[in-house]
From TrEMBL:
It is a multi-pass membrane protein. InterPro entries: Beta-barrel_TonB_sf (IPR036942), Plug_dom (IPR012910), Plug_dom_sf (IPR037066), TonB-dep_rcpt-like (IPR039426). Its main location: membrane. Belongs to the TonB-dependent receptor family. This is TonB-dependent receptor. Gene3D superfamilies: TonB-dependent receptor, beta-barrel domain, TonB-dependent receptor, plug domain. Residues 61-87 have a biased composition (Low complexity). Keywords: Cell outer membrane, Membrane, Receptor, Signal, Transmembrane, Transmembrane beta strand, Transport. GO terms for cellular component: cell outer membrane. It is found in: Cell outer membrane. PROSITE patterns: TONB_DEPENDENT_REC_3 (PS52016).
Amino acid sequence: MKDNHQSRGSGSRSGSLGYRRQLLAVTCLAGSVLAAFATPARAAQPSKHHTPRHQTSSRNTPKTARTPSRATAAPRAHALDASAAETVSVTSSRRALNGGGGMMRVETAPHAVQTVTKEFIDMRAPTSTALDLIQNLPSLNVTTPDSSGMEGGQIQSRGLTDLDMGLLVDGAPAAAAKYLSENVDSENVESVSVTPGSSATDLPVMSAAGGVMNEETRTPSQKRGGLIDFSYGTNNLSREFLRLESGEIGHSGVRGYFSFSNTHARSWMGAGTNQRKHIDFGLQKDWHNGSNAKFFLSWNSADFIIDNYPTSDQFFRYKHTGQGYGRTDDRKSNNYWGNNNDHWNQIFISAPVHIALPSRLSLDIHPYFSFGQGWDASPGGTTTDATGATRGLTNYFLQNEYRSVGTVAKLNWEIDRHNTFSVGYWYENTQTIQSYPTSYQMADGNAPSPNWAAYQISAGDKQTAGYEIQSLFVHDTAKYFNDHLTVDAGFKFVMTNIWNKDYYGRQEANRTAPLPQLSIGYRIDNHSQVYLNVEGDYRQPSAVDLGWLYTSVAIPKNQYSIKEELGYRYHDDHIIADVAFFNYNVTNRIVDQYVGMNSYKPFNIGSQQMRGFDVMVAARPIHGFSPYASVEYLHASQDSNVFDPYLNTMLHSKGTQAVMAPHVIANFGLTYTYKGFFANGSVHYTGPQSVSIAGDQRIPGYVTDTLSMGYHFKPFMFAQSPTFRLNFTNLTGSIVRTGAMGAVYSARDPSTVHSGNLAPYTGYGNSFMVSPRFTMTGTVSTAF
């Protein structure tokens, strides 16, 4: 079994049908979107009681995937939209729905939803990714390796990980948590929602046992203008951002924006610098009959250092003596930082369209596309060339191409004012072409391109792997007793053909996954709601998982989960509260072991059970103060014994605490505003956790903290909202391990360690993410 490189996409990086077919796919996608923007849908005219455009569905689906917009079918707008047009009245409505300074939002869906809104996002540093924004939600433990936001991170959620979650942007599959900064700049994020125990039937996710995280991008402004900000901070961080808004273009109803950012930062541990350039482009058009179309495109180019994640021994050496474990600045070393880098270019497109039709019908079409190329470089030791000189080697994980293209089509029918029925189809094709070349290290210590013939020693094995998904789904939403009772019922049947081709041959398998769902919500009065959610979810091996397996190894079985959730919500003029009890049963549990240099190896650990509860509570502003608190209790146990191939023994793991599943996660936040001044502080606690299947390696509980403060000045000349803010992380400078890089069988599992100028040596047990040291970022910004 080969090592598995963590995928860029929600499933994986993926490869090619040939460049002509890619170009054709992109051209067709762009053409369909432009046609949608150019030609209004021919549909029934709305009544004078037409449902507002910003109403959303109860399943927390993308804004464009709505039920038909007719007076007879328009339920009360209990669900929320943070992306309505930016007017004074809408801004006021947003704040009325928020608590804890935007760290919590009033929700009405019949399942758990945890959301941070624009009010909170605007107080955080512009370098924040979605991971930084959601780290105080009760069901999540988030770990990030750097303070500049360029290296992403990991999520633990109710005993599962981000590899078990669907990670979306505007409802389309996007980059994995390790590469989350590729998706969208934080200035263009309207809200981030997590449904920890639920995945809507119409969402294109192949890994949703841990739920879904969805980033909603901004709605283009009705008026011409823009936003500019500059940031500077610890570790030589510098960042520039500019967004230009078109406003309505003529009288077409089309409006859009274009933004560009450039980020540079030094690695906080060891030597090296990280670079990121990013573009976001958005368009939107709304028609009076309720039809709308949205287009979002992002491009990302990044070069960042692949960190050396320390073993337990390295961590304690750093903690007690200050001896670091990062890359070296010695150009003669094989572990020179320029020989340990991730180079990647990514393009992402999401283009949902909602069309209102006659006879109480509507159609939602949501095409999406992502494509990327790049490589990871790592030390390959040294060798003697033909002249007798000793030269360093570079090993590569090279993805010549990652490609994922898909679409979701859904037809909605309002049977009557109480009942809306939907039927839909999801198609996705994902493929990766990857190889493992070896080259000489350049004389200046840097890694050359793996395609440069002057340095290449071996082109390495080449593999192609991928999958094709076809899925049918039905969904019905019924509302009775003046919309007090909501019943969502759905069924999704997924059919997958997965394949893997290497030097030795080709293998493929056909898999199916039945995914039933039932959610019931009852609004007791205008303040209280109870809900029940039951569903099945799955996780199939990603294209990259397959690409790292020899074809002689059987394709792993799908992981399958059955989940139940019972909750209660309350909100009034003073507080918002939410309590959710949950129970998961997982079979064929897939976990991933980190083996260094951004490479992972999947293995199966049998069955697992997780049960517990989440509590969230937030207050409306009281004399300017808006407190927030959340806590999760989790009892997760391993239900199977597992064979350890390193020790050639059966681990008696049945009944032990599940790996990477802390019993307690707690958060506290406090926001204060007075006139132009604002501040937000947060504290996060994660309890002790096991990081090995055998339970013989653990990490203790830890605390992290953040602080944001700033001032909104009065408009001056062209500057409509001049603002200065400071953001701090790790105020106490604590040196703590915030999570494991993956699962291991036991503390005696061997791995290869590269640290500074030391020769490669064998380490044992897991490797860890460590909280970056104290950082401060200052930002000056204004709208214009």
